[in-house]
Write a structure and sequence with these properties.
With about 230 residues, the protein is α/β, with parallel strands linked by helices. It has a single domain (about 5-230), classed as P-loop containing nucleotide triphosphate hydrolases (Rossmann fold), CATH 3.40.50. Helix content is about 35%, strand content about 30%. It contains 7 helices and 10 strands. The chain has helices at about 50-55, 80-90, 105-115, 120-130, 150-160, 180-195, 205-210; strands at about 5-15, 20-35, 35-40, 65-70, 70, 90, 165-170, 200, 215-220, 220-230. The protein has a 6-stranded mixed sheet, with helices on both faces. It has a 4-stranded antiparallel sheet with strand order 2-1-4-5, with helices on one face. The longest helix is centred in the C-terminal third of the chain and has 18 residues, at about 180-195. The two termini are about 30 Å apart.
Length: about 230
């Protein structure tokens, strides 16, 4: 499709196991447009995280083609894949992956340092992200001083601080209560609406699902359903 920013064509992923292989994803065909707010749903083991990792060039497919922002993932070398991620893709992991000796401010600032953004511009962007996620009073704290929910909010702020084209979120609300979840999802929707950021979630959380515009269901590594679900006002 003309405006697709992600295109997946007959993509499969195999993992070696004793005496053979395990197929985690089978002949996936999907297209994502700019500014989508989409969830990949399904039970544990259905291939949600594997699919996100391949889209984000953290892993590669075994068969088929995956194009992200016009680039074939399988043709990228390590440096090119890292450049694509650092410039254009934000990641939100279940396990936070925060730098333990850095403050909240420094953790959020880190992606901007990698992009060599000037200090004054970094400060504005980090303070904006802190405000978005309600973390201003935690700016000088370290991860060990935070609750699990606060750590997840820092991870989300770090993912969106550079205003990426794509955000890939693996169960981003798993450690948050309902109020925090809805606040963060509303912040993501604001970025989606105002800046055209594409969000793709791997989730089974109903709090996330009710915000989705599109829901893709995976079962046993295959797309069983792809539906437009509307938008929460």
């Amino acid at each position: 499709m003309k405006n697709a920013i992600i295109k997946i064509e007959h993509m499969s992923k195999h993992f070696p196991v004793a005496g053979g292989k395990f197929t985690a994803l089978k002949a996936i065909d999907l297209t994502f447009q700019k500014a989508e707010f989409t969830g990949i749903v399904g039970p544990s083991g259905s291939g949600k995280t594997t699919l996100l990792n391949i889209i984000g060039s953290l892993d590669s497919q075994s068969e088929g083609d995956v194009w992200v922002l016009g680039k074939s993932v399988k043709d990228l070398n390590n440096w090119q894949a890292a450049r694509l991620r650092s410039r254009h893709i934000g990641f939100i992991f279940q396990t936070y992956n925060l730098l333990p000796y850095y403050t909240v401010y420094e953790n959020i600032e880190y992606p901007l340092l990698l992009l060599k953004i000037e200090k004054a511009e970094r400060k504005l962007a980090v303070n904006e992200a802190l405000n978005w996620l309600g973390l201003t009073d935690k700016a000088e704290s370290r991860p060990s001083q935070l609750s699990g929910g606060e750590c997840q909010r820092v991870a989300i702020a770090r993912a969106i601080v550079k205003k990426p084209i794509i955000v890939l979120a693996d169960e981003p609300t798993a450690n948050l209560d309902a109020d925090n979840s809805h606040h963060i999802l509303q912040t993501m929707k604001e970025l989606n609406n105002k800046m055209g950021v594409t969000f793709i979630f791997a989730t089974h959380d109903q709090k996330v699902i009710q915000y989705l515009q599109r829901k893709i269901t995976l079962l046993d590594g295959e797309v069983s359903r792809d539906e437009i679900t509307g938008e929460r006002s």
